[in-house]
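Kindly go through the following sequence and its backbone structure tokens. Advise at your convenience whether the structure tokens fit the sequence:

___
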Amino acid sequence: MAAKAKTTGKDAKGVVSSKKSDPSKKAAKSKKKSWTKVKTRDKLNHDVFLDEKKWTKISSEIPKILCITRGILCDKYKVCGSIARAMIRNLAVAGTIKRVGDHCSSFDLYTGVQAKSALEKAAEEAAAAAAKTKK
């Protein structure tokens, strides 16, 4: 019987090849990029129409807000952007809010007529506290 020859990795041409592969091929195979770790935002479930009860509540609260933008109305009252634009337009025509600065198509800044700044609120609280101590 013929003795088994050791397999050293000779190919048909008689060239000795090692069993170790290139390190660059191994690195490419071992770490495959995963795209599942991307964070996704939850879809916001905002209202697309207003009923009469909600509109009266919102229209009475908005004039007391110092800084009014579409984003603030969307976040605070959970309505979509087109409804927020319509609310701002309606209240501006009614005169309960007024524009701050120049008109811009992408960003409108308004303030409520009844809104008070931080200094006015502090002065009012100090006057109330002084009136309370006099009694």
About this structure: The domain at 46-113 is CATH 1.10.10.10 (Arc Repressor Mutant, subunit A). Residues 118-134 form the longest helix (17 residues).
